[in-house]
Amino acid sequence: MKKQTLAATAALVLAASLGACSSGSDGAASGESAAPGGDGSASGRIALIAKANSAEYWMRVKEGAMAAGKDLGIEVTFNGPDTESEGDKQLNQLDSAINDAPMAIGFAPQDGAQDGAPRLMDKANEAGIPVIIFDTPLSSSDVPIATVASDNEGMGAEAAEQMAEMIGNKGKVAIIAHGEVGTAAARRDGFKNWLAENAPDVEVVDVQNGESDPAKSRDKAQGILQAHPDLVGFYGTDDDSTIAIADEVASKDMDVKIIGVDSSPDVITLLKEGKINGVIVQNPFGMGYKTVELLYKAAQGEMPAEKNIVSESLWVTQENLEDPEVQQVIG
């Protein structure tokens, strides 16, 4: 995906999320919407199981989901493990959600839950519970009626295009991914494939998996920088990896261009300080809102018109950070 196309299409999704925000997103504590008229029964409840329950990105997804629940007058529960490396725990949460028989379920599978999820998708299907996957595709099951996710491969390609421009289309670059499958793989491969096809003089010298763990990601960054002191560009596929890269580059006082995916308060601070050169920011609020909205319609018998619904993204730098449309997405 070229940056011009990404920027243009983002406006459509932003318009929808701006409208959603105007309805209020104060939500309620512990994953339950303050839905007026919601009776709290299974027939009026939608359950979302996210990759994690406390990271900034997932809190924004939750805010969007709760806003949708409030607008629709239904209860929305939002759950997830403490970290994105607890696949078994996430599967147990999904199983419990199915046993509670909500009207519909949204599921964002962790890497470690990908293999075990199809069995539970079948269980939900047998119980007559419609399921929508959000954030991360689940390729191993045909049960979900739709997937709401960012164009992760396109975001990787956008990061590569921006990186190539920053480094003059030549030099050594490296990647720290936040996993080996799912969104991490798509963002990693989108980056590598774009460079291979469009910037042959840019060499990807190393790719490491930081497991979406700040400490592990920083250790990986340190090792790469020690092995490649002539590195000119560094790409992180999520906020944890991007922050780790920026911190390590700053500690070594190296001149390395840094591009990442996803926003958090720490990412924005580093961006303002010039320690990160740019980030591709998803619209988590819009993703949460859209997922609940589609699940509610599906529970009423109205299936999504498309199997894959793209939640668009924005390219954010110091220059456009204060733009209203950017501020709305990064919260």
TrEMBL record:
It comes from the Bacteria. Residues 1-22 form the signal peptide. GO terms for molecular function: carbohydrate binding. It holds the Pfam family Peripla_BP_4. It is found in: Cell envelope. One of its GO terms (cellular component) is cell envelope. The keyword Signal applies. InterPro entries: Peripla_BP_I, SBP_2_dom. Keywords: Signal. Residues 46-302 form the Periplasmic binding protein domain. Belongs to the bacterial solute-binding protein 2 family. This is ABC transporter substrate-binding protein. It comes from Scrofimicrobium appendicitidis. The lineage of its organism: Bacteria, Bacillati, Actinomycetota, Actinomycetes, Actinomycetales.
